[in-house]
Amino acid sequence: MTDTTLSAPARTERVTNFRFSATETLKHVCLILGAVIVLLPFYVMLSYSFKSPSEIMTNTGGFFGAQELFRDDYCIKLGNEVADCMVKPWIYNYTTAFSKAPLLRYLMNGVIVTASIFFIQVLVALPCAYALAKLRWRGRETVFSLVLFCLLIPVHAIALPLYIMLAKLGLTNTYAALIVPWTISVFGIFLMRQFFMTVPDDLIDAARMDGMSEFGIIWQVMLPTAIPALLAFAIFSVVAHWNDYFWPRIVITGTRELFTPPLGLREFKGDADGDNFGPMMATATVIVTPLIVAFMLAQRRFIEGITLTGMK
Amino acid sequence: MASIALKHISKSFGDTQVLKNVDLDIHAGEFLTLVGPSGCGKSTLLRILAGLEAPNDGRIEIGGAHMNAVRASERNLAMVFQSYALYPHLTVAENMMTPLKLRDLTMLERAPVVGPILARKKYHALMGQVEATAKVLKIEELLGRKPGQLSGGQRQRAALGRAMVRKPVAFLMDEPLSNLDAELRVHMRAELVQLHQSLGVTFVYVTHDQAEALTMSDRMAVMRNGHIMQLDTPHLIYTRPDTLEVAKFIGSPQINVFEGEAANGSVRLAGKALSLRVDPALSGPVHIGVRAEHLLIEPAARAAGLSGKVTYQENLGSDVFCHVALMDGKAKMIARMAAGGGKSFEVGDEVNVRFATEHALIFGRDGARLEVESKAKPEPLQRKVA
Q: Which of A170, B57, B171, B369 satisfies CB 3.0 to 4.6 Å to B10 for a cystine?
């Protein structure tokens, strides 16, 4: 008898665990469909970066391609023996990506630009957000509504005036042209302001009693408590500017030296010998990887950060 | 240790005037409590004293020195906040060290990495002070932890430690116990009083809890609507409140108020004269205040006093609060009786209510307390209403 009474709850639990639910299934089907639509281009990109040109054209070879040696025509043009010019497709794709265009240089440019943008954005946004959230001054609400208004201005609408200003200052084809227009992020100010509103006033008063200056409070009290919000903002900022094609395309006209990674993709487009998809997709894969790695790292920090804010 | 004087302090936020010409003298080394309902301006007064808020008008003096234009950090006061306000990203030791670092080290010496190398001796000395304070508060083993890993009581101590470590001339406390559970709150009350005695420093303590004010303070200031209504020792405020409002605010359960009539130097309640004498010039309605412990409830059979009906009983273990509806529910009284002390009543019982007239407080129509001369000999709880 005891056996049956003991096992009874376990059995009911199992039943509830595996109960079929039509709505849940429907939700998951929708989500999986969405995920497939989003991931399919990535799958194609990754797959093409491994395949030989003929496999790409004929759409054969599955995900990884057969990896049979093929003849590199460019290598033969340079006067090498045919036997020396037989290459494995994936090695060919990735070495070409790095050798035909200075991809490392582009990646470094990308890092310099996105890091500088984010650094200066934080430098500007934190004091602004602090003043808007925690200081009392005449006109605060007006200024805040201006910030909200600026959120509505699309970048492309002001691109031309911005370009003209930079050109008149002689700043086109410099890092400054890539960085300066993005240093003040109204979105960042808005996001940090909303976060600072949740920081208790007592904490700021305590810092004042301890003898901290207002700037001291921003960097030593508000910044450490705002890490989770800053991480969220970092994702938006870094992704947007790392992937930005539009603005670098406008202000970087001559020198390849200043190309950012998305501009680097153009190197493989529309050559005389036609599109070279393998190396192009390899480049795209290389460009996307840092972001995905960074996001995975940030995701973990994200959760940690959110649990850290349990201040009460 | 310093005396503090607040003179003619006024403060308004927009159109609402929070403080109206408040004067407050705080003696050196005393434990003074500001008590009042929320929104009465007590916290604002404390923040003005701390320097976190500027008064619209008035003068602040600490130890005789004019302080209006002095920054909060340079007034040498320490504040303990209701939410403790510990820096969440720093350990307890770092939290306690922050005010010392900001006061004693130069900007370069405070810099991360470089600072501790340059000023190793100074850091060592500061750490010594932190450890000494931690020892007094018995939080040495918590020094390495972050606020998120502490319980409410431990955070409270850490916040106290941060306040104590720089040896301020006065402690300002803004409802420091209200986030603690009831048991710990009572315990911390005693600890704070002991701390005050051992430090001998001025404490200014803000609370809305009249029990805290009564048990802890040397003197208490009862505030309401931006005024200090009465400033006196807890005993005098309880036994001789200046106004009906103070009498109603201080004391739990609330003081019972009967509506009486004064004429020809005597006070009449329900048509019968009480055995006490007031100013003969006074006539018209008066309020008669009687504390719960001075009300006496008896079975209805002994027909004397006011008749009523028991509506509810609160058993607190040591005491029983007996709620009685008088005059067919028009007035409600609460009497305190010792639990198990002879008489006990059931809800719905018809009872008689009496009180000792020498303990009755008479308030005029404007709420001010009137001096009374009792005709009765002081025989507590023996006098009848009529």
A: B57
